[in-house]
Amino acid sequence: MGDGPPSIWEWIARNWDTGRVGSIKNLLLDHLTMSLVPIVLALVVALPLGLACVRWRWLYQPTSGLMNVVYALPSLPVFMLLISVTGLSQTTVIIPLTFYGMAVLIPAVVDGLASVPDHVRQSAVAMGFTPLRRLISVELPIAVPVVLAGLRVVAVSSISLVSVGALIGQGGLGGLFTRAYQNPFMPPVIVGIVLIVALALVADGLLVLAQRLLTPWVRARKGAGS
Amino acid sequence: MNLLFSFFDWLAGFFGNGENWSGPSGIPMRLLEHLEFSALALALAVLIAIPLGLLIGHTGRGGVIVVISANLARALPTLGLLVMFVLLMGTASSLPVIIPLVLLAVPPILVNTFEGIKGVDPDLRDAAFGMGLRGPQVLGRVSVPVALPLILLGCRLAAIQVVATTTVAAYTGLGGLGRFVIDGFATKDYSSVVGGSVLIVLFALVVQALFALAQRVTVSPGVSRRVKVR
């Protein structure tokens, strides 16, 4: 070779695992960390907050108002403002993404629990379920489809948003975009976009699978009906 | 507390500096640029997405494609698209920036318009047909007013997206408020970074508030009482 720019496959082969920080493999791993941590954190925080909003209805209005505001904040300036607190670290990307995730998930949890039919709740009470057991074994399972629909949105948008972090040097695969811009060269851009979209699709597919496994009654009912 | 002090120092340094208030790279011009680009991209997206969404929602054909493309669009990394179009088309015009901005703003409007129109109570539509309205009249006088909260939600989500992406687009040389942040970061001028970031955040919040206001003004009170968003 040596004449002309390398093809995209050559470029991938040469940069996949160079052992240095900027290899595609390392960027991919960084990208996974920076998108998975906020997804999980957002869910872990949004569940109790959503439950609290259902338990004490007056909490919901201010919470959802605040989350609407949070969701409207553009990521780049938020990263920039956080730098003075958390430095040029992955945390600077992870914190805002967690909040964006919560902004989607808290309403999802509230809507999910609101979708539990009243007669189901009353049956559980009549069967002698304690409030905690009713929540865990009746209400939450019924809320799963709505919560998971929110989680799919969060997963896909977190995975694509991480790349903006490249502008502060922490963007996982987004680093391929800044590199390609500084040294005009198309293959890294294509590889970055394709890998990010692929990651998002895989995450989305896994969540669809999780929903099927967690709500077997949906298919059972369909099967019986047809 | 040192941090808080330097934060306000930076802010004071940015907003207190007279040079930042005049000329082509001053705050007013940058604000105007940001507004122009965001408004242009949003307007183009609205022009494409709303008629298409109305058509698909009203006829009920092609809905699956809308939903799939909206999900796919959410997965597209904005920075990657920007860099790709700039590398493809150069920086001679702002077209390579406008295209991805519009591309990312169309799906939320399209999918919400579609869902809104599709979700109109069939009984309501039947009643309208029964009163002698024709297809387009039913759409314009019944379906659109009922679906308006969702259509506006789609526009608001698109506006949020556009304002954020316009900021990121400063990286590829676009003007606007993102310049303060990107240039300040490159030259370690933190007062510019912090000041610019605060400006963008305020800008985004004003846009958000305007949409909330627009919703209150345009949505019929009979509709807004039982509306459920997102």
Automatic annotation (TrEMBL), chain A:
Membrane topology: Multi-pass membrane protein
Subcellular location: Cell membrane; Membrane
GO biological process: glycine betaine transport; transmembrane transport
Transmembrane domains' residue ranges: 35-54, 66-87, 93-114, 135-168, 188-209
InterPro entries linked to this entry: ABC_transp_perm/SBD, MetI-like, MetI-like_sf
Highest taxon, organism lineage: Bacteria
A matching Pfam family: BPD_transp_1
Gene3D superfamilies membership: MetI-like (1.10.3720.10)
Record-stated family: Belongs to the binding-protein-dependent transport system permease family.
Protein name: ABC transporter permease subunit
Native organism: Nonomuraea phyllanthi
